[in-house]
Amino acid sequence: MKQHEEEQTKIEGILLAAEALVKEKLERDSSGHDWWHIYRVVQTTKRIAAQEGADGFVCELAALLHDVVDEKLNADPAAAQRELEAWLAASGTPAEQVQHVLEIISTMSFKGGARPPMRTLEGQVVQDADRLDAIGAVGISRVFAYSGWKGRPIHDPTVMAREHMTEAEYRAGKDTAINHFYEKLLKLKELMNTAYARQLAEERHRFMEQYLQHFYAEWEGER
Question: pTM of this prediction?
């Protein structure tokens, strides 16, 4: 019993330290990848992990740290990666779980959609939670925040949504906020890994479809 309590105390300490690290790095972000994005992904991760029977500690730690080395948010992603690996090595997290967390973080990004499936249940859970935060009411808010951060327009009817993009095209091509719905957000419901995440995605997906109907009607002055 005492050993179990000590283990729980250690786990809680690692997670609190990870939370402090992420807050320090992301609390001033304005791209939609701020601390509150992390908070929401963690909350959803815990919910899905409980439903799917995944390792809660690995899931929560990966959810906390998943954007710390994101290439969109770091001028030197390789340096950010080295810093994260050093932090994890010094955190007291067992080596096997460190490697699992690093694998999840390195393979979960959308990057145009042409990515292999997540290898582990824990990776699937965290990826699903991150993707759920990209759709629905919050997802709509985030796509416009990100578009403003990137300097791209809300909508341009002459710019067509792209299909079958490479990662470079996805990152750097001509784009609009509304096109991003078709290039990514509306695809995510079908890309959920777990049964429970698919359930959660249904309502969020419908909300985005309804939003787009209203958007186009207002754009043309029909509402």
Answer: 0.92
Give 183: exposed, middle or buried? Use CB within 10 Å, 0-12, 13-18, 19+.
buried
Model pLDDT for residues 100-137, shown as the tens digit of each residue: 999 999 999 876 555 788 999 999 999 999 999 999 99
Where the chain has pLDDT below 70, the residues are 1, 111-114, 165-173
Alpha carbon distances (Å) from 44 to 131, 157, 174, 200? 10, 35, 32, 10
Instruction: Count Cα atoms within 13 angstroms, Cβ side, for 178.
Output: 16
Residue 10: give the domain boundaries: 2-219
- For residue 32, give the CATH number of its domain: 1.10.3210.50
Domain count, the chain: 1
